[in-house]
Amino acid sequence: MSVFARCLSITFLLSILCFTVKAQLLDDRIIQINGVIMTADSLRAVPAVVVVKNQNRGVQSSDKGVFSIVCYKGDTLQFSSLGFRQKDFAIPHDLKGQYYSVIQLMVQDTFYLPETIIRPFMTREEFDYAFRNNRIPDDQYELARKNTSDYIMRALAYTLPRDGRESQAMYQQDQIKKSFYYGQMPNMKLFDPIAWGEFFQAWKRGDFRKKRY
Question: Strands 99-106 and 30-39: what pairing?
């Protein structure tokens, strides 16, 4: 066997050995992080986004705050959720094994938005004209007040037909009157002042006028 062949074989074996060692070291750095995200004051589950810092990788936790992500030892995880302060968790380099559990507590945060002024019109003159001439539609409260006014209720009572209960009451009143004068002539209302008053009121209203259809 020539010297060149021996050197080539040794180089090939060293390359395989280096690749194996590198793969083993790389596999030893990989770790799976399992955890849950909760509030710091009440331990309530918080759905959040977990991102590996400076890398375009991340996961979304469940509605119970549970998450699982695979990364390298030494990476930094960023936890962010709407209404909570962002938290960072640095994975130690000297962890043993490929699995690690984390309970991340989040603290609520208050956001102060800048002032925003919304103007529906371009100029003050347009606003003045619209304020004077535009008709604002009634809200639900105003519509309900108008529909239950005394005038509307009287008009509805005058125009709407009687229901079954009212018809039954009218029929019973008529039967009572007939039973009261059963076997005799009913009283004549010719000299009844109340009847004459009702007659004059009907005459003034025009109830006896000839109606044209």
Answer: parallel
Asked if 22 and 53 count as a contact pair (C-beta separation under 8 A), the reply is: no
Alpha-helical segments (H) within the chain? 3-29, 124-133, 140-147, 150-159, 164-180, 193-205
pTM equals 0.43
Angle at 45 between CA 43 and CA 46, to 5 degrees: 115
pLDDT-wise least confident of 16-20, 125-129, 135-139, 160-164: 16-20
Query: Going from the N-terminus, what domains does the chain have, and what CATH number goes with each?
Result: 27-106 (2.60.40.2190), 124-189 (no CATH)
Distance CA 95, CA 106 (A): 24
